[in-house]
Amino acid sequence: MSGSTDGSARGRVTLQHIADELGVSTATVSLSLRSSPLVAAATRDRVQAVARSLGYVYNRSAASLRTARTNMIAVGFNDIVNPYFGELLAAIEETLAGSGHTVLLGTYSDDPVKQDRVLGTLKEYRPDGMIVCPANGARAASLRDVADAGIPLVQVSREISGVGLDFVGSNDALGTEAALDHLFALGHRRIAIIGGTDAMSTGANRRNAYRTYLAAHGMAVEAALMVEGFGTRDLGFAAVHGLLDLTSPPTAAVCFNDLTAFGVMLGLRHRNREAGRDFSVVGCDDVKEAALWAPGLTTVKNHHADMGRRACERLLARMVNPALTPERIVIEPTLVVRGSTTSVG
Amino acid sequence: MSGSTDGSARGRVTLQHIADELGVSTATVSLSLRSSPLVAAATRDRVQAVARSLGYVYNRSAASLRTARTNMIAVGFNDIVNPYFGELLAAIEETLAGSGHTVLLGTYSDDPVKQDRVLGTLKEYRPDGMIVCPANGARAASLRDVADAGIPLVQVSREISGVGLDFVGSNDALGTEAALDHLFALGHRRIAIIGGTDAMSTGANRRNAYRTYLAAHGMAVEAALMVEGFGTRDLGFAAVHGLLDLTSPPTAAVCFNDLTAFGVMLGLRHRNREAGRDFSVVGCDDVKEAALWAPGLTTVKNHHADMGRRACERLLARMVNPALTPERIVIEPTLVVRGSTTSVG
DNA sequence: TTGAAAGCGCTAACAG
DNA sequence: CTGTTAGCGCTTTCAA
């Protein structure tokens, strides 16, 4: 090809060019390209044909300026390497694709300052809505800023208390209770809780549920058995060592998430102990890998794909009707028992 | 607060409002907000203060229309649940955040038709650049369409042969050879290859390297030992059964990726065999979980975080200078030996 | 150092 | 059924 059309087509074909080519107005072109019934079928076809031949590419920025809609949904997460969030993001992206929305992604590694910066940037793209999992220690004002700028927002997985915004997540306390019930029934009376902090809803909810449960079942709540921190493999790995070194070590642990539980299982092996034989460990999330480890990980299933879907649905509903009263949509978790838990030796 | 400013601030504050408030022009406001040296410091400060108090939010769509830059980079992947791509995406997102770019995400599940649709949509957002891992069976025209629309594009991980666009990926053949060398040295003479298709570069490269290696080392290339398919756990799991049922079953397998290898290890266990004892398995990618399985997975490390970073760097370079000659940036993989391989029994 | 004016590419009244 | 016109919010000459 001598590239004659290509040359002019380098991302620079506009409605005007098509209009000129056909001797019609840009309005007609605009309507034709969207297959509006207002325009004659013959005209529509001619316009579409010329658009194609000219290599026309619709310019959403321009349209957005006019319509005040971008068809983008911003997603703010701490971390997408954690498969829990990876899978959650995948569910969201897929659901939104179904309604013609594209995901704009930002991450902030559980750093509230970075979160504010990232959300601020995302906001400037004027997404039609935003799905956010708040950072550890994030303040209500950070999310309110977004909502006050007129962007529908739903919190997913974690929430900021009193922020007055939609939330779709899991019943953390119930999950922790189910895990503790399971261990209690297996005879465990010294149970650690590893991971989570009181500065994120999921951490606070689970740690409080733990405290309450222990008290209600006549077990003392010992600081040494409550290992605070982010839900990483490293935390789990390191925590095991400390716990096993206690004068009176625990026989089981509930973990903030599956990643932490995997770290615990590795730490155990490192000390010549095996989960499900010498020690019981319960995870949380039920990521794909949980079923596949040896032994399989007993874990609290958060139904996170469902959570992602429901967050999208809620957001779309709020986009249609911004006056909706904020709602807390809480999904019941399920305990999945596998090989990593056993009766106390 | 009685919300008087909030009411008008609902995402509707523009430069004009700030200008009116101060009796200056929008030009001055625009310059002030970007801290241009052209404007007096005192003016600048007053403008910025008013902008803040009015709850002004910069409108990137409007700016983009004017500047023809969006500061968005589109990323097109098949699947982000596979931790390999999740980690790759994380590396890309992080790198781009450093240069002030935000990621626009699209996925297409290895479906070339869906890929075309998704890339078409992404294109309309006029991202400043695009990073794409082509779908299985994707044609050159799909990516050329994007590039011809004037959007700088780099292929990552997989490439379409002859498309004449940048590519950042791994030396697939070398990785496969390293895996086979390792198995050969352990005495294996019947080696399967599981996963990958000839319709994606990574699959074709590895399968060809396998064919060549076997021929060069006096082993017959048997169709039954070459299990074609996408790199899923399910494929690995299913393939093992078929392979073990052969009259003369293999003693080892190289897998398309770690996920497939995990599936193989599970399938083995299902047949009362253990990887690293009764059968040897080599993965590819070295995702985080690979080191943590029991036994640890011997795998070909693709350095995918590095790959993501380099893809971004190449893209940024091309954005600065679109005339750059397309380049193939090939990263040397490393074999990581762990417990899933052993000498032939 | 600041303002006026034009225009990026599109859509939405409104008129015809 | 199609054209005219105005304008979304910003940046960028060019003048003053």
Automatic annotation (TrEMBL), chains A, B:
Residues 13-67 form the HTH lacI-type domain. CDD domains: HTH_LacI, PBP1_MalI-like. The keyword DNA-binding applies. GO terms for molecular function: DNA-binding transcription factor activity; transcription cis-regulatory region binding. InterPro entries: HTH_LacI (IPR000843), LacI/GalR-like_sensor (IPR046335), Lambda_DNA-bd_dom_sf (IPR010982), Peripla_BP_I (IPR028082). Keywords: DNA-binding, Repressor, Transcription, Transcription regulation. It comes from the Bacteria. This is LacI family DNA-binding transcriptional regulator. The lineage of its organism: Bacteria, Pseudomonadati, Pseudomonadota, Alphaproteobacteria, Hyphomicrobiales.
